Amino acid sequence: MIRAYKFLMRPTVGQQMALSEMLRDHCSLYNGALQERRDAWRHVSRTSVQYGMQSAQLKEIRAFDPDCQGRWSFSSQQATLRRLGKAFSAFFRRVKAGDVPGYPRFRGMSRFDTVEFPEDGDGCRWDSTPQDPITRVRFLGVGHVKVNQHRPVIGKVKTISVKREGKRWYVILTAERVQPEPKPKTGSMAGIDMGLAHFLADSKGGFVENPRHGRKAAAKLRAAQQALARCERQSGRRKKMVRKVAELHRKVRRQRLDHAHKTALDLVRQHDFIAHEDLKIRNMARAPKPKPDPDRFGTFLPNGAAAKAGLNRSISEAGWGVFLSILHAKAESAGRDVIAVNPRNTSRTCPQCGHVSPENRPTRERFHCVACGHRAHADTVGALNVLRAGLARRDANPA
Asked: Percentage of residues in the chain with pLDDT exceeding 90?
């Protein structure tokens, strides 16, 4: 089992400068490798440059530029080139799938914020001074950096990454650990129905309210973005406002993560089996296609794009994908079973008689079966049907 840990670092002023230089040099390596691939494809008979070819050039690059590229970890530079290779692999995969992908682009210093070390002990060392009561991580060319370790790291550290978020620096670890002891059985099972009015409803009639952190911070964020738009380019005030906007976004993101972690932990502690809808969030948040006017060339008919844009913002703000990822990870650690089921007609099917009809749900919250007269909250009905579908899938495919 692989688990990730993220800790705040406390670098000195000199270490911050060294970390910034490390990001700058890795960004330069990334952009240079991207330029080589572009030039080879355009000017050398459409030659495709692969990761292995560029990795073999690292020794010469480090010897040519010892003051910049030569002072950092060789394996971390390989990881940066491998990162570019993954970007091209994803690009060609989307091309073959018929999508309209964006070509991998050059990164500015503000958009290149992570350096990965593929192995603990190769250019980096986690907690390299165990006799010191203060946790430290050592990076080649930077030194021993203090770490605010707020929880223990369980297992063997596999990879270490450095990440910059605004003015803060973080170290991200991935550790491999054995399967922990499962939590005691509770004998409870639940289905959950994701929504926007309520963040989720369970099959027992409970609801978790949608905190809407993004909407609460919208006024402050709008004012900060308007002030940023009025700033002169390259001015000190503009840099200050950029940091303020980033800080507001960071606060909303952390609030959303906190809510997702707490909600998932409550579900895992209370239930042995959890079923949820297999939501295709990217498809749900897709913009509607334009409708050309057949009578007037170059004009379009109304397609509800404005209303759909508001719905898409609400879907993105809810953070369903992040929550479900956290739920699966916590359930695996606790020894719980989580199953995703097809959400088709789950809110239109009567849990009493099984009748399926769009008329069973006259409003967003009300459920009234036209066949048997059963009444309930529509989200609770959806959660009940999700639980039944999850149990049927579990019994059909026993472990």
From this structure: 67
Q: What is the DSSP letter of 207?
A: E
Q: How many CB atoms lie within 10 A of CB 378?
A: 22
The pTM of this model reads 0.85
Number of domains in the chain: 2
Indicate if 196 and 244 belong to the same structural domain.
yes
Rg (CA), the chain: 26
Range of the domain at 57: 2-176
DSSP codes, 17-28: HHHHHHHHHHHH
Report the C-alpha gap between 41 and 36 in whole angstroms: 9
Task: Label the pairing between strands 189-194 and 273-277.
Answer: parallel
**What's the gap between Cα 203 and its chain centre?**
28
Q: Are residues 193 and 128 in the same domain?
A: no
What does the H/E/C string look like for 214-264? Answer: HHHCHHHHHHHHHHHHCCCCCCHHHHHHHHHHHHHHHHHHHHHHHHHHHHH
How distant, in Å, are the alpha carbons of 118, 248, 318 from that of 254?
27, 10, 13
CA distance 13 to 117: 22
Residue 399: pLDDT band (50, 70, 90) is: low
| Number of neighbouring beta carbons within 10 Å of residue 11 | 20
Q: Tens digit of pLDDT for each residue in 61-119?
A: 999 999 999 999 999 999 999 999 999 999 999 999 888 888 999 999 888 999 999 99
Closest to 37 measured CA to CA, from 26, 24, 28, 50:
50
Please tell me what DSSP assigns to residue 203.
T
What are the pLDDT digits (tens) for 129-169?
767 778 999 999 999 999 999 888 888 999 999 999 988 99
- In terms of domains, do 377 and 237 share one? yes
The secondary structure of 270-286 as a DSSP string is H-SEEEEE---HHHHTP
